[in-house]
Amino acid sequence: MNSHNNSSILKTCTFMYTRENHSNDTVAMDTALVTVAMVSLFVVVKTSFDLLKKVRAKITVIVIGAGPVGLLAALIASRSCRVEKIVMYEEKKKRVLVNCPQQLAFDADSISFLKSIQINFGSIEGCWDNSIGKEIFYTKTGVFQEHLVSILALTTTPVEMHLGKKFSSKDQEALSQIKGRKLVVVADGNKGRTAAMFGLQDLYRQIPCKLYGAMAHIEKSNEQDVPTPEIAVDSLTFDLSSFYGKAIRHHPLHCDKNPGPGFRFKIFGSKRRRQMSLVVPKYNTPLIRTLKTTLNQSIMRNTFKECFNNFKSQEESKLTDIYTTEHLKYNPRLFNLKIYQREKSVAYIQCSDVFVLTEGEATSMLNFHTGLDINLAMPSLKTFDQFIALCTQAQGSDEVSSVVQQKTQTNNSLNLQVVETIFRQLKEK
Description:
There is one protein chain. By secondary structure, the protein is of the alpha+beta class. 43% of the residues lie in helices and 23% in strands. It has 14 helices and 16 strands. It has helices at residues 2-56, 68-78, 94-98, 108-116, 141-154, 169-174, 194-197, 241-244, 286-293, 297-311, 321-327, 378-382, 384-393, 396-427, and strands at residues 59-64, 83-90, 103-106, 126-129, 136-140, 159-163, 181-186, 204-219, 231-236, 263-268, 273-281, 329-330, 335-342, 346-349, 354-358, 364-366. The strands form three sheets. Strands 8, 9, 10, 11, 12, 13 and 16 form a seven-stranded antiparallel beta sheet that branches. β10 and β11 form a beta hairpin. The chain is elongated and about 115 Å long.
């Protein structure tokens, strides 16, 4: 009897223990499921919140320099849904900007890009030329800049322009008062020092072009200051016997029997402000060696004068000896052509949440004018809208670092394109 009772008690205790253990397991599983559900909900909510934050994120763009590149950067930014406001600084006053006489020449690729951002060439005073089978548009820098300023005045994105005001350290400090993220675009040219204020040191790589060149400039007061197509002539050589031979035979365009590589001569600029260039591959021929080392400045002066008089447009007047001597500004000797590219062109300043980017000649420049210099900035401007989006959406140090690294790689690739473009502009027939 006692044995039976003990057995019953044991079964009852075992049953109660099993039921209690089962109950504990159920509670633990329920707790785990609730935890998983809460974590999943948190992840979903956080992901949705982060996504919404990225979608609604805005950025303020500060452009330093209101030349063609800076104004184009501002125009591209104004078309972006990511940009809340644009602030521009330019040390030149508006009247100086809109009266800048230098000529701009846009090649076919640049024309296509500018049309894609609604630049209406029909509203810009200038001229077209397709004589070499490639469409080129010529206008004055001031005319183009005035056109861009007028477009920015009508954009729906707020644009705050400080013309006649140089960007200073006080302006830099004031950026901290602007709420949210900022993107500073430094487009103040090859003589600007703004990039250094943001930690981008003025350190450049020198890329030799394996070319020699010389430039000349003359202002012809009797000509109209209107845009004019360029004139280019290839395979030129010169006879310098009039300077070095006993027999004075003044014919600088006479060809030698073994002249070596030919020169490329180019006339560009407006009718009034004519610019000329001579370019030749690096060879150690007597002619090139003479033009590179001569101390006789009249050689290069007469070379430019005779080239101009032989290849100018028919309606232009010739340069006389007296006018050339008094007004022609030129390099007295051939010099090495070099490309300078900034070592670091993009950065992020964490304490003030500011991205910094250099554009135009603040990034890459040539110690020589090709007449098509503005086109060197276009490849980078084509990617500017995408860079704005990346800067705006980047959250956390990893994403920010990724944006800087990606833009650096893009710039390195674009720098190679710039080098190729320069070679093509200097040597293209």
